Amino acid sequence: MLTRKTKQKEFVIENLKKRFDHPTALQIYNDAKDQKIGIGEVSIYRILNNLVKEGAVCKIVTKDNVAHYDFVRGNHIHLVCNNCNQIFDKEFGSDEKLSKIIKDFHISIQDIVLYGCCNDCAKTLKKTDK
Amino acid sequence: MLTRKTKQKEFVIENLKKRFDHPTALQIYNDAKDQKIGIGEVSIYRILNNLVKEGAVCKIVTKDNVAHYDFVRGNHIHLVCNNCNQIFDKEFGSDEKLSKIIKDFHISIQDIVLYGCCNDCAKTLKKTDK
DNA sequence: CTCTTAATGAAAATGATTTTCAATAAGAAA
DNA sequence: TTTCTTATTGAAAATCATTTTCATTAAGAG
Predict the structure, then answer these.
(1) pLDDT (tens digit, 9 = 90+) per residue, A18-42?
(2) Could you say which of B75, B77, B98 has the minimum Cβ distance to residue A96?
(3) What's the CATH number for A7-129?
């Protein structure tokens, strides 16, 4: 299935590339409106979802249940404050122990949830891969 | 503010204590219905939220945006499969490196989000503590 | 220039969770 | 035990970010 270049897609990508504040879909939409670029809110959501699926953009959901987006640049993980809902970039050190991060960011062990892919699904998905 | 003992609260706690499958609010609600215990769905949500606030229960949200709950027992973290939405308990080793977990559960660095409390909020909250 | 269909956008739908508020009941006080 | 306060419950309605629908628009291949 071919992919077409559209001003809407271009705008979302450029907007994300130039900022580092993990904006929401609404913030990107408002930027587009301010700049008199015609994009509907729905399209922002659709474009963001596609970018996330492609792996070009990552999605961070804060505890107030709002999705934030970040252009994937390098090796950092995201720390989210449950109180102020701010998102912090944290450099990923491959030698870093989980216990160190837990201590530094006041994380409760019971609150740690990591999203990935279980072995069974990994096997199945590998087969399905073209 | 005093806390009252109710059959609704008791049921939710007992239900969570005896099971290890990270149920949703709806699953707990259905169990109550099956056992002819009168509890409204809303109350399940309210009770669960309170238990989470108290730290007795933890909440795990899968990628299909549904909250699951787990009675806090010991030191384990949760791994969630983005494909089948299954939740796995993983023993927490204080010496374990993040990179090891990442490899074992097919986690992308860009997808790692840890929820805790930033230093500024930690300070403020400490003051507010009674 | 044409034509196919990918992409858009407005409105409506979704769906888990939260809010509202009147009714109920826990448990302290009399 | 009875009374009384108010914590708790529950049904219905509201919320709200996000998704779906489907008719319209426009990329870009031929």
Answers:
(1) 999 999 999 999 999 999 999 999 9
(2) B98
(3) 1.10.10.10
